[in-house]
């Protein structure tokens, strides 16, 4: 490596290592995209204010150990909370209530936890039809039963007409992590294999079609589902699973960039291993959106040791993820970066999302 190449690499490393700057004086829709603006807001506002050893794990759930849990059950406790403001509140394949249950169950599962209990808080806008509320509440109960969790507490607030958008829901969840499970970016090793549980971008495109603003009609349904059963099967087949993340806001590209930054390793994706349904891809093409950045609500990524990858894939195929694929690997270089190997054998860098092409997706 000559002196100029060394200088360029040093500058790249400095950019990758430094915190993302918070440049805005006011909150914008981009701060809800799951991309660079979201990361900067979380880092400079919430992490600065709340930072502690659990929150610094920067996962979808905080995993803690208590003396009682470890002594009696050999387990850790995982907790997660999330708010749902999707527009519209009903869309092909699901609704805001089902999404709220599945989203929190999945956040717990991504920490290796077995979800147990949920709470739900509702902000209702004056004028919301009671029949609509009943439908959403019923779908929440059905989703909770399917995932094997109980809704054990809740709260309801009503705000004047125009102060909300029909209905917002916040759910919190608790689960237990078996003592033999440790997942996180620090577990990831070079040579590990990346598995994608199913086709991508269906949820984001289903919601966009449901809004009706684009005069485009396509029978695309959201992928919203609870994945905890699949994750249990995955751990049975691949007990050394390193890392898990559901590709929600910001899509596969964003969560892979988060992994690359956290590990300082290269996430190398294979285009042929990333499935996009034909109609979903067509909708993305019409809107000029890369499917890699579109939200999913029942699709996750897993990093597993190479020698356990086939067993993991087989387990997913028989536990609710028949279209799971091996979509990439972990390499040393280019460090802290995501690279996509195209079907033609070329490569392109996959950066973190900057703006928010699809607001109010979850």
From TrEMBL:
Residues 66-177 form the PurM-like N-terminal domain. It comes from the Bacteria. Residues 189-339 form the PurM-like C-terminal domain. One of its GO terms (biological process) is protein maturation. InterPro entries: HypE (IPR011854), PurM-like_C_dom (IPR010918), PurM-like_C_sf (IPR036676), PurM-like_N (IPR016188), PurM-like_N_sf (IPR036921). Belongs to the HypE family. NCBIfam families: hypE (TIGR02124). This is Hydrogenase. It comes from Corynebacterium aquilae DSM 44791.
């Amino acid at each position: 490596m000559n002196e100029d190449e060394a200088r360029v690499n040093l500058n790249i490393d400095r950019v990758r290592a430094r915190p993302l700057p918070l440049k805005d004086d006011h909150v914008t829709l981009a701060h809800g995209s799951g991309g660079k603006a979201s990361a900067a807001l979380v880092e400079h506002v919430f992490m600065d204010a709340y930072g502690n050893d659990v929150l610094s794990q920067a996962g979808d759930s905080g995993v803690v150990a208590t003396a009682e849990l470890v002594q009696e059950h050999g387990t850790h406790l995982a907790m997660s909370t999330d708010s749902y403001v999707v527009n519209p509140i009903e869309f092909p394949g699901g609704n805001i209530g089902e999404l709220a249950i599945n989203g929190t169950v999945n956040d717990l599962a991504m920490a290796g936890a077995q979800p147990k209990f949920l709470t739900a808080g509702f902000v209702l806008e004056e004028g919301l039809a009671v029949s609509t509320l009943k439908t959403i509440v019923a779908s929440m109960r059905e989703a909770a039963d399917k995932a094997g969790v109980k809704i054990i507490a809740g709260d309801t607030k009503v705000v004047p007409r125009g102060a909300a958008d029909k209905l917002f829901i916040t759910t919190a969840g608790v689960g237990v992590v078996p003592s033999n499970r440790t997942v996180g970016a620090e577990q990831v090793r070079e040579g590990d294999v990346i598995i994608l549980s199913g086709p991508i971008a269906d949820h984001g495109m289903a919601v966009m079609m449901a809004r009706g603003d684009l005069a485009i009609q396509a029978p695309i349904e959201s992928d919203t589902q609870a994945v905890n059963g699949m994750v249990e099967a995955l751990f049975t087949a691949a007990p050394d699973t390193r890392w898990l993340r559901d590709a929600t806001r910001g899509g596969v590209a964003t969560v892979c960039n988060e992994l690359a930054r956290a590990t300082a390793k290269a996430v190398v994706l294979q285009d042929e291993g990333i499935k996009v349904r034909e109609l979903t891809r067509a909708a993305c093409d019409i809107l000029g959106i890369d499917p890699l950045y579109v939200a999913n609500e029942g699709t996750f990524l897993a990093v597993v040791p190479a020698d356990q990858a086939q067993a993991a894939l087989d387990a997913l195929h028989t536990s609710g993820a028949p279209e799971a694929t091996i979509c990439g690997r972990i390499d040393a270089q280019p460090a802290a970066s995501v690279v996509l190997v195209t079907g033609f054998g070329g490569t392109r860098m996959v950066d973190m999302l900057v703006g928010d092409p699809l607001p109010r997706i979850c």
